[in-house]
Amino acid sequence: MQQEEQFLFKYLNNASPTGFEASGQKIWLDYIKPYVDQYFTDSYGTAVGVINPEAPYKVVIEAHADEISWFVNYITPEGYIYVRRNGGSDHMIAPSMRVNIHTDEKIIPGVFGWPAIHVRKGEKESKPSLENIFIDVGARTKEEVEGLGIHVGCVVTFKDELMDLNGKFYAGRALDNRIGGYMIAQVAKKLHDSGKKLPFGLYIVNAVQEEIGLRGAEMIAAKIKPDVAIITDVCHDTTAPMYNKITSGEQIAGEGPVLTYGASVHKKLLDLIIDAAKKRTIPFQRAAASRSTGTDTDAFAYSNEGVPSALISLPLKYMHTTVETASKKDIQSVIDLITAFLEELDPDYNFKYFD
Questions:
Q1: 328-344 and 175-194 helices cross at what angle (nearest 10)?
Q2: Which one, of 320, 156, 325, 292, lies nearest residue 217 by Cα?
Q3: What's the CA gap between 316 and 14, in Å, rounded?
Q4: Phi, psi of 248, deg, nearest 5
Q5: What is the model's pLDDT at position 1?
Q6: CB distance 135 to 111 below 8 Å
Q7: In terms of DSSP H, where are the helices of 82-174?
Q8: Cα(113)–Cα(97) distance, rounded to whole angstroms?
């Protein structure tokens, strides 16, 4: 396994729930440090590697580091644990899943239990909901649960890890969006290995707390005050079963990065990205966003009196499950496209629509 893939598996398999991203951020920073001139973090854990930190013109490439999870919300007298969401966690997939409960001292294994099919009542049976999913840690009383170090507020993550599918895809939890952190780290490595000198400062940003409202991006945009921002995140592969292309458009894993049109996406910046893709014959797809993109693009675009921002998305199957699936070919194409754009960008380019 190559160094890049070793980093990918280590980084993706590490849990980094929203608000508790520090361990993953340390892994990411340790990897990226040889490829940047400087790095820093902010008070909530967003990590930034900087190339050419003295340059007055600042360009951001960004991903978010956090993954969806659960919080321990209530422990019953019988020792069962009920949860609430930390981000957009899916109650429908929880029953029978294995989990890790992150206490102050150690990780406690548990399972989301569910009644056997024999005792459920046919068409009238209860469906999974936040009111009825529960975790069993092998304890019979609340006191026994608490004796393990578990308390209200402990964060819970699914145990599933990254796997290879058919040599063409990766599948696992938290590709949304630590795969983005992997991709921007590879951009930094690619620029370093090429010896290419950029005529601007490049800020490689791995932001926290996207899953609960783009909060990390809001904070770091105010700190960096960039001139341009390129955001990478995931979007839906709409060719998988049960998607409606009429409402969701058509994006296909394996057919290239998805470039989004929308109010927060600066059209002139998007055109530059498309030009870079065409010049390097990098495949790409298009999507349209209504009102907002729902990604950190919006946070950067509307910060600091307005920052030209654009979104490069990775088509993803089965978002917010433990088997999120992305094409290896697309991952490389996103890396190549961001690198191509950076190599083409002129810091004197005028992003105003008119004077």
A1: 50
A2: 292
A3: 20
A4: -105, -5
A5: 61
A6: yes
A7: 142-147
A8: 8
- The strand pairing partners of 207, in sequence order, are 64
C-beta neighbour count of 172 within 10 angstroms: 23
- Are the CB atoms for 36 and 50 separated by under 8 Å? yes
Instruction: List beta partners, residue 201.
Output: 58
Tell me if the pTM is above 0.90: yes
Cα torsion angle, 84, 86, 87, 93, sign: negative
Sequence length of the chain is: 355
Q: Which residues in the chain land under pLDDT 70?
A: 1, 122-123
The amino acid at 132: N
Looking at residue 274, what is its pLDDT?
A: 98
Q: How many CB atoms lie within 10 A of CB 59?
A: 24
CB 18 within 8 A of CB 212: yes
How far is residue 355's CA from residue 344's CA, in Å, rounded to a whole number? Answer: 24
Report whether 277 contacts 337 (CB < 8 A): yes
